[in-house]
Amino acid sequence: MNHLLKLVKNRPYELLTAAAIIVFFLFKLHDVRIPFNWDEMGVYVPAAFQMKDTGHISLLPGYINPLFSRGHPLLFTFCNALVFKIFGDTVAVGHLYALFLAIITLVMFFFVAKNLFNRKIAFFATAIFSSQPIFFSLSGQLLPEMMLTFFTIGCFYGILKKKWALFALFGSLAMLTKESAIVIPATALIVLFIESIRDKDFFTLKRFRLFLLGATPLFVFGLFLIIQKIQNGWFLFPEHMGYIHWEMEKLSKGAAHIFQDMFILQGRWMVGVAFLAGIVLGLFSKLLKTGPTGKFILTFTLFILLAFIFADINYYMTRYILYVIPFIVLGGTYTAILIFERIFSNLKMMQWVMIIYFSAYGVSLGHTNMYPDQSTCDMSYKIVVNISLNAIHWAEQNWSKDTIDANFPINKGIQDTRNGYLTGGKPLHYSVNSEKPSKYGLLFYAWEEKNIPIGKSRKFHIIKTFDEDWAHIAAVKFERNDTISSGKK
Q1: Rounded to two decimals, what is the model's pTM?
Q2: Torsion sign (Cα): 37, 43, 44, 48
Q3: Cys-Cys crosslink for 176: which of 75, 242, 271, 370, Cβ 3.0 to 4.6 Å?
Q4: Is 335 helix (H, G, I), strand (E, B) or coil?
C-alpha cells in the first residue's frame, strides 16, 4: 500500500495518462467488429489480402497489383499482411491491429511531450489528442495515417533532442509508409541549415554528417522509387500525378479548407487558436521562452506549414492531416497553460488546468459524428457501414443466385466474405458498371448526388431503398437483363 501511495504521489500524471489510455481502449473495443469501410476495403485491406493469399509478403512493389498498391510505399501493407497471416484475416484482427497502432501512438506522444515539456502538459495533451474525432475514428480503421503519425512523433523527438540517428530511422520508416512524409525530412534539413548558419559550421565534417542523416529518409524513398520504376514502369502512380494542381483558385479554396481542418473544425479551435497564439509569442514575445524554448513551437510550425503546402497542391482528404494534429494539440496545450498561469495567477493550478482540459476534451468529443458525407475522419463513417450491411443482408436473402450490378463500396462488400458484410459464407455474383448481364442492381449514392448512379441506357424500377441520414442505397430491377455496352434498348 505504501508503495502504491508513493507511486501516486511521485508519478500522478503517468498514472492519469495510463488510465486515460485504458478508458480510450475500452471505448474503442466496441468498434473492432465494424466491417471494413471505404478505402480500407477499396485499397489497403485487399492489398494485404493479396500479399497473404499469394504468399508474397514483401516491401517490393512488383509483388502486388498496382491497383492495390496505388504506387504507395508498402510498409503499412507489409505489416497488415503479416498480421493477417499470423492472427487470421478477419475484421476483428485488422481493427485490433489498428487500435494497437493508436495506443502505441498515444504512448509515444506522451513520452515525447514529457521529455520536451513536462509531465503535466504531456498528460493533458495526450488526453486531448485521444479525444480528437479524427484520431478516435482512425484508431478503428486500417488506414496508413495512424502508422505515419506514430513515426512522425518519433521523428520530431529526434529533431528536437538532436538524436539524428534516431530521426534517420523513424524518418525512413515514415517515408516507407506514405509519400506525404516527405515534408518530415524537408523540415529536418531546414532546421539543420538554420543551425549551421547560427553556429557557423556549414562546411564542417560534423555538419555534413548531420545533413546526411537528415536526408536519409529521402535516400530510402528514392531507392523505393527506383525499384518501382524497374518493376512497374513508373516512379509514381500515374493517376496520382493528375491530382497535382497549381491553379490559384483551387489552391486558395483548398487552403481555406485545410486551415479549418487543422485548427478550427471538430472542436480543435480551443487548442488550434492557442497554437496560433503560440506562434506569435514564439516570434515576438519572451513569454513563451520562460519554459521550454520557443524553438519547439516554431519547429512544429515549420512542419505544419510544409504539410499544409503539400496537402494544398495534392488531392486532399481530412484524414491526411492526422500526422500534424499531435503537434497542434501539444503546442496549443502548452501555450494555453502558459497564458493561463500568467493571467489567472491567483487561481490554484489544478482549477484552471482542469477548466482547460475538460473544455477542450468535451468540445472535441461533441464532434465525433458531424461530417455529412462518407468521410473516414469521424465516426459518421458508420452510417455507410450500417446501410451497406442492411442492403447486403437483404440481397443475400433475395438475390443469392443472381448477378447483382453494384457500385463502390457495395461491390467490395459482396465480393469477399472477409470484409465483414456477408453472412452466408460465400461471395455474391456481382457486376461493376454493368460489365456483365445483370437482372438486379444494388447502388449506393450520397444525398448530394441526388440521382441513382446508373447509365441512362438502362431502364429500371426501384424495388426497395435503404436510407440513413445522407446515405442511400437503391435495390433496383432492370427491365432488360443485359449490359450497357451491348447497345440493347
Answers
A1: 0.91
A2: positive
A3: 75
A4: helix
Domain limits, the chain: 12-365, 381-486
Given the C-alpha cell 524513398, which residue does it identify?
221
In this structure, the number of other CB atoms found within 10 A of the CB of residue 159 comes to 24
Given this model, what pLDDT does residue 471 score?
Answer: 85
Cβ proximity of 468 and 419 under 8 Å: no
Backbone angles phi, psi at 251, to 5 degrees: -65, -40
pLDDT averaged per 10 residues in sequence order, the chain, 489 residues: 65 88 92 94 94 93 84 94 96 97 98 93 92 92 97 97 97 96 97 92 92 97 94 79 74 91 89 90 67 77 96 90 96 86 64 60 60 71 92 94 91 93 90 85 74 70 87 87 48
Alpha-carbon Rg for the chain in angstroms: 25
Q: Is the dihedral of CA 267, 269, 270, 275 positive or negative?
A: positive
In whole angstroms, give the CA distance from residue 124 to residue 272: 15
Pairing state between β 430-431 and 460-468 = unpaired
Q: Report residue 300 as a C-alpha cell.
A: 512544429
H runs (alpha helix) in 55-118: 66-69, 75-87, 91-116
Fill in the amino acid letter for 380: S
Return the sign of the alpha-carbon dihedral for residues 44, 79, 112, 155: negative
How crowded is the C-beta side of 280, counted as CA atoms within 13 Å?
8
Please list, in sequence order, all residues whose beta carbon lies within 8 angstroms of the beta carbon of residue 178, skipping any fewer than 6 positions away.
72, 73, 76, 144, 145, 148
In contact, 413 and 419? CB cutoff 8 Å: yes
Three cell numbers written together for 348:
490554484
Q: Which residues, other chains included, contact 128 with Cβ-Cβ below 8 Å and sequence gap of 6+? A: 271, 329, 333, 357, 360, 361, 364
